[in-house]
Write a structure and sequence with these properties.
Number of strands: 8
Radius of gyration: 17 Å
Strand content: 15-25%
Low-confidence stretches: 2-6
Mean pLDDT: 86
Order of helices and strands: HHEEHEEEEEEH
Largest sheet: 6 strands, antiparallel
Distance between the termini: 36 Å
Strand order of the largest sheet: 1-2-6-5-4-3
Number of domains: 1
Shape: globular
Helix content: 10-25%
Structural class: alpha+beta
C-alpha cells in the first residue's frame, strides 16, 4: 500500500487501500493498517473503521438541539440538506430510530426516541448520518452476490460527497 502520496479525498484513499491489499487482510487488519497510515481528515470527518464495505467516520462535535426538535424526528434544516444530498446522488432519505426494538429493552419505548438520517439506493443503505458518527458505504454487492451481502464492487459516489455531507454537521 503506497502511502507516500496520500489522496486528498478520504473515501477514495480508503477504496484504493482496500483494493491494493485485496483479500490479504481482513477488515479488522485493514482498519488497524489504515489507522497507522497518514489518512487526512476531509471536510471535518476522520477515519474510524472499515467493516462490511462501510467506512465509519468521526464527525465534528454536535449540539443535539441542532439535530432534534422538541417535537418531531430531525430538525427541518437537516432534513432539507439530506434531501438535497440524496437528490444529487440519486438516493432516498429515511429517518429510522436510533434505538433497537422495544422487545429487546422493555420499557424503552416510552422515552423520546431520537432518529438519524439514512440515504439508500434501491438495495442497501449507503449513508447513515448521525450526530455522533457518519457511515458511508464504499463497497457494494454486485448483482451476482447481492443475496449474500458480499461487498466487493467499489461504490463510487464522487469526490464531493464528504463536502456535501459536511453541511449536516455545520453549527
Amino acid at each position: 500500500m503506497n502511502t507516500s502520496k496520500p489522496n486528498k479525498h478520504l473515501l477514495e484513499t480508503i477504496i484504493s487501500a482496500r483494493t491494493s491489499v485485496g483479500e490479504g487482510l481482513n477488515e479488522d487488519e485493514l482498519t488497524r493498517l489504515l489507522r497507522q497510515t497518514a489518512l487526512l481528515a476531509e471536510a471535518g470527518f476522520a477515519f474510524v473503521s472499515f467493516s462490511g464495505g462501510v467506512v465509519t467516520l468521526s464527525v465534528p462535535q454536535q449540539d443535539l438541539a441542532n439535530w432534534y426538535p422538541e417535537k418531531g424526528w430531525i430538525v427541518p434544516e437537516k432534513e432539507r440538506v439530506a434531501r438535497a444530498v440524496a437528490e444529487k446522488y440519486d438516493l432516498l432519505v429515511g429517518e429510522p430510530p436510533d434505538e433497537t426494538s422495544g422487545f429487546l429493552f422493555p420499557g424503552s419505548g416510552a422515552r423520546n426516541v431520537h432518529h438519524h438520517l439514512e440515504l439508500r439506493n434501491r438495495w442497501e443503505t449507503v449513508i447513515v448520518a448521525h450526530p455522533t458518527y457518519l457511515k458511508v458505504r464504499v463497497f457494494s454487492a454486485t448483482r451476482e452476490n447481492r443475496a449474500t451481502g458480499d461487498a466487493k464492487k467499489p461504490l463510487l459516489l464522487g469526490p464531493d460527497l464528504l463536502h456535501d455531507l459536511s453541511a449536516l454537521y455545520e453549527a
